[in-house]
Amino acid sequence: MSNPIMRDSLKALIVAPGARQGDLPTVDRRPADVEMARVLKTTPLRMASDPPIGAIAYWEHGALHDVVEPMAEHVVVTYPVGSQRLERRTGKTVAIGTARPGVVTVIPAGSTSRWDIHQPMNVVQLYLPQATLERISGEADKVAPGDLLERTAHPDSMTSRLLLSAVDVLEGRELLDVLFRQQVMVLLATRLLAAHAGSLTALQPVAGGLSPKVLRRAIERLRSDNDADVSLAALASDAGLSRFHFCRAFKKSTGLSPCAWLRRHQLEQAMKMLRETDTSVASIAAALGYASQSAFAAAFRRLTNETPSNWRRRAR
Fold first, then answer.
1. pTM for this one?
2. Which CATH number is associated with domain 26-195?
3. Which of 58-62, 78-82, 141-145, 208-212 has the lowest mean pLDDT?
């Protein structure tokens, strides 16, 4: 794997926070289940609401190409089966992720973003009021919680398992079912405060993965647009691991191999140039180190199901 030639204009963050929770008055936000029904164009297969703690819903929905408007609750999504790409655009920032078991997506209350999902999928969603987070934080004698971070298919097997564990009792009306759901939502709120609130640069350790420090260093090297060595041997040596163990731990932490991560990063830089500049597709392909425009177009299509030119027209 060789380091592609990148220009200064290609620098961009992969994931950026969306609108802060306080950007819009709460009165202007739709209930999360109402907004999701509008966007997904269906109704949940199962749903349980346990006020004032929150609600959990199980959905099967088709392809999605729409803007999710600001919602009154935080929404946490996980994926019980399958694997497919997600594209989320917030302002000028594009985040690409792979929906699969063991990852979660976080949509903070009051934020808005454009979503493109090209195939039907199953999802489980938690709708959590800010008041629940504040209560849990207060009970733990912590300061008032900061904004939740936007997450797009973020590796977090603990949160994913907790949310999936409630699916089987979504229609239960027995006291034990209700108590179980409520306890799961409290645990999820606690987990969100611990793992998905605060500094965007905070990296959470993943069992069996790289430590936050080593993962951050590897990602910084992969993102670098200078002549840093991003060969697998160099990455593994920097982490103090064999190439085999580095690849396994990196994939455990990010959901992607180092090579796949770098390809995704390159294509996200391409999206930024396609959207914000008039640079030709051929020049973008060359800047990213592709052997030809056709090779770049094929890689771009695999990720987005669109040609670079079609994506540019839609994104502007």
1. 0.64
2. 2.60.120.10
3. 141-145
